Amino acid sequence: xxxxxxxxxxxxxxxxxxxxxxxxxxxxxxxxxxxxxxxxxxxxxxxxxxxxxxxxxxxxxxxxxxxxxxxxxxxxxxxxxxxxxxxxxxxxxxxxxxxxxxxxxxxxxxxxxxxxxxxxxxxxxxxxxxxxxxxxxxxxxxxxxxxxxxxxxxxxxxxxxxxxxxxxxxxxxxxxxxxxxxxxxxxxxxxxxxxxxxxxxxxxxxxx
Length: 208
Hints:
5-stranded parallel beta sheet
């Protein structure tokens, strides 16, 4: 199985591009939303550590926002609670899709939380800052202060670029995104096929 991980700035289009690969996608943001809406056990733990902000199940988005903006330490408390649950869900996702040729990981803190494996293919999605800002401003409940808090717990884009095998320069058009994905998939699959061929030849030589 080939693991492809998408990294990049908030609003760079990672989630959209992840779907274009047409392979199973683990979207951490979606998983977090499910946890907040359906996991009562986690809600009770959340309420216990931040009782001034959470009241009735399920957790409300405005409650999370208020908690994070009230004190920057609260984001770390929430992240420390949610991360192990996401990690378990990721493990289950990988097990479920173990026979797939490729899986795609769309996890905002993939590098920061050291979720990467040695053979992972890391793709960094970047875009022009003004375009990213425009897209973020169109989001429901857009809050620049909240976004800045999330940016503070992420690696700088320069470090993400250094750790990446491929870079997608997103201009937010379907044509460009599909072109990048197609090229990257061809390169990845050709490289893996070449490695497999060389390994098979080595095995045959050893047997003979």
